[in-house]
Write a structure and sequence with these properties.
This protein is α+β, with helices and mostly antiparallel strands. It folds into 3 domains: 52 residues; 166 residues; 74 residues, no CATH class. The chain has 6 helices and 17 strands. Strands 1, 2, 4, 7, 8 and 12 form a 6-stranded antiparallel beta sheet that branches. The C terminus is likely disordered.
């Protein structure tokens, strides 16, 4: 029993070690690489328009430049200057190409498209292109369509722009709509803004889940060791006050439990008594007679009855000093 309590303490120490490992793993952060879309840059594209006042009028001075108006008058200047403005919030190198078409349409059907400009090149940061168009010539073609087909035709500038580098690909179509009236024309153009994102690998730190095998396995193993040590400790605690003789009896019953049952010695009057020298001998005799040995714990007697004969072994426990003698 003394060895049992020592083993219990050793197992308890080992289990505490595994619990410490589980605790350490739980508090150790897990590093994972996570791909995130991070805002890289913001870009925008739009048309600008302007027309210089060439003739006297009651509103504007001659030579004054009208910019980004919704309405322009033929009498002031039939030529419209326009262009495309590309704005980036990063001052980096770009390649670009532009294609400009003059398009006539009615009922969402293209009647005529004419290429009027094509260009390509490089720039840094922002880009502004400059072009001009005689609106009177557009008005003339629109009137020809109206006279010939009896339909209302609209004109528009179609602007294809491609801006590229290793990080972005800005490939868009912009429309500058021109609505022609008798004395003036209306202008409305596209304005687009884009936010571009870039994939970036970042390190994220997480706490391990309690179900992680690096945590759960030490906990399971330590729980098993605690159970075993608890059992050993309980056995020691229960048996700590047993006398040496009781321990000896317990060992004998455990060793021969297949052939021993617990019971009480009956009245033996009229039975022939045969004393047996040892536990082993009485068990051997009982097995030969196809009987079970009964142990009377109160009288400390092993016995079995065969017909009118009772075989008895009176337990005699020898101490170490007795064995020495």
């Amino acid at each position: 029993m003394r060895h049992g309590i020592y083993l219990s303490l050793i197992l308890l120490c080992i289990s505490m070690f595994f619990i410490y490992i589980a605790y350490k793993e739980y508090n150790k952060p897990v590093v994972k690489n996570v791909v995130e879309n991070v805002k890289f840059m913001k870009i925008s594209g739009r048309f600008y328009t302007e027309s210089k006042v060439l003739h006297e009028n009651p509103i504007w001075n001659v030579g004054e430049v009208l910019k980004d108006k919704n309405i322009y008058f033929y009498d002031l200047n039939p030529v419209l200057n326009f262009g495309f403005i590309f704005i980036s919030d990063r001052n980096i190198n770009y390649n670009f190409s532009e294609n400009i078409y003059l398009e006539y349409s009615a009922f969402n059907e293209i009647l005529k498209r004419k290429a009027i400009y094509k260009n390509s090149g490089k720039f840094i940061g922002n880009l502004t292109t400059n072009h001009s168009l005689n609106i009177s010539s557009i008005k003339k073609i629109v009137e020809e369509f109206r006279e010939k087909y009896g339909i209302s035709v609209n004109g528009k500038i179609v602007y294809f722009i491609k801006i590229k580098n290793k990080d972005i690909n800005f490939d868009e179509v912009f429309y500058l709509n021109i609505s022609l009236m008798n004395k003036y024309y209306k202008i409305s153009g596209d304005n687009k803004v884009k936010t571009l994102y870039k994939k970036v690998v970042k390190k994220k730190y997480y706490k391990r889940s309690i179900s992680d095998k690096r945590i759960i396995l030490p906990i399971i193993f330590s729980s098993f060791l605690i159970s075993v040590s608890s059992y050993l400790f309980a056995s020691w605690y229960i048996n700590r006050n047993l006398k040496d003789e009781d321990v000896y009896i317990k060992k004998i019953i455990k060793k021969y439990r297949k052939w021993i049952s617990m019971g009480r010695l009956p009245k033996i009057k009229g039975l022939k008594i045969i004393p047996v020298k040892s536990v082993e001998d009485i068990i051997e005799a009982a097995v030969d007679s196809n009987k079970r040995v009964i142990f009377d714990s109160k009288r400390k007697i092993f016995f079995f009855i065969d017909n009118d004969v009772i075989y008895i072994h009176k337990l005699k426990y020898e101490t170490k000093s007795d064995k020495g003698d």
